[in-house]
Amino acid sequence: MSLAPVIAIDGPSASGKGTVAERVARRLGYRFLDSGSLYRLTALAGMQSGVDLSDAARLADLALVLPVVFSDGQIYLDGVDVSDAIRREDVSRGASCVAALPAVRGALLERQRAFRAPPGLVADGRDMGTVVFPDALVKIFLTASAQARAERRYTQLIAKGFSANLSALLQDLQERDARDSMRAVAPLQRAADAYLVDTTLLSIEQSVAAVMDIVKLRLPQAGDAPAPQ
Ligand code: DC
C-alpha cells in the first residue's frame, strides 16, 4: 500500500511558513503538522514539571508520552488549552534548547510520522524534507531575508498591542537562525531536492500561490478543495 503524499515545508523562524503551510493544507484538504509545536510543548511540559531543559533523558521521556490534543486549531496539553502559552518568549527559547537534543528529536520522530494519513499531509518545520519525511512528494524551503522576517514579527507584535524593538528582534532572529542551522543534529538545511521559495517580496497569498504552483507540478490533479459547507 502506498503511503499518503507529504508536502514538506521547511525554513527559518518567521518566514511565514506556518501560515503558508496551513493555508496550503486547507486548499488541498490535507492534514497539517506544525512540528515546531511539538518542541514547544516538550519545553513547556518540562518547565511545568521543573525539569532542567538540558536533561535530555527526562525530556525525551516527557516527549514520548506528551498528552497532546490538536483540535480546531487549538492545542491542549493534558486537557489545558496551551495555544498561547507555547508562543511565549521563554517557551520559544526553551523549544530551541530542547530541539538541539538528539534524544528529544528521536522521541518525537514517530509522533510526527503518525500524522501522515490519507488524503495527504502538509508538514512544516526545519527537518521535514531532510529527516522526518525524506520521501516527501514535494519539498519546499521557504525563506525570506532576516530584515523582512524581523519586520513581519514587529508588525505582528505591534498589532497585538505589545511593545517591540526592531533591532532587538532582528538580532534575536539571527541568533536563532544560527542555533537552528549550526546544531549537530537535524540542522536547518535546504534539502538538495527542495524548491526554494523566497518570500521577501511576497505577501502571504502570493507565497501560498507560489507553493501551490510547485505542488501542482508534482500533483497535477491537486486543485483547491471545495470550501467546507
Ligand atoms: O517553528 P517554531 O518556531 O514553532 O519552532 C520552535 C523551535 O523548534 C525552533 O527553535 C526550531 C525547533 N524546530 C526544530 O528543531 N525542528 C522542527 N522540525 C521544528 C521546529
Description:
The chain is of the alpha/beta class and 229 residues long. It has one domain: P-loop containing nucleotide triphosphate hydrolases (Rossmann fold, 3-Layer(aba) Sandwich). 48% of the residues lie in helices and 15% in strands. It has helices spanning 17-28, 35-48, 56-65, 89-98, 102-113, 128-132, 146-159, 166-182, 204-218; strands at 6-10, 31-34, 68-71, 74-77, 80-81, 121-125, 138-143, 195-198. A 5-stranded parallel sheet has the order 2-6-1-7-8. Strands 3-4-5 form a 3-stranded antiparallel sheet, with no helix packed on it. It is globular, with a radius of gyration of 17 Å. Residues 13, 35-36, 39-40, 95-96, 99, 125-127, 180 line the site of 2'-deoxycytidine-5'-monophosphate.
Q: Structural class per helix/strand content?
A: alpha/beta
The tally of beta strands, per DSSP, is 8
Q: How far apart are the first and last residues' alpha carbons, in Å?
A: 32 Å
Mind summarizing the main beta sheet?
5 strands, parallel
Tell me the domain tally: 1
Supply the CATH architecture.
3-Layer(aba) Sandwich
Helix content: 40-55%
What binds here, in terms of ligands, is: 2'-deoxycytidine-5'-monophosphate
Output the CATH topology. Answer: Rossmann fold
So, the CATH homologous superfamily?
A: P-loop containing nucleotide triphosphate hydrolases
Counting DSSP H or I runs of 4 or more residues, the number of helices is: 9
Uncertain stretches of 5 or more adjacent residues: none
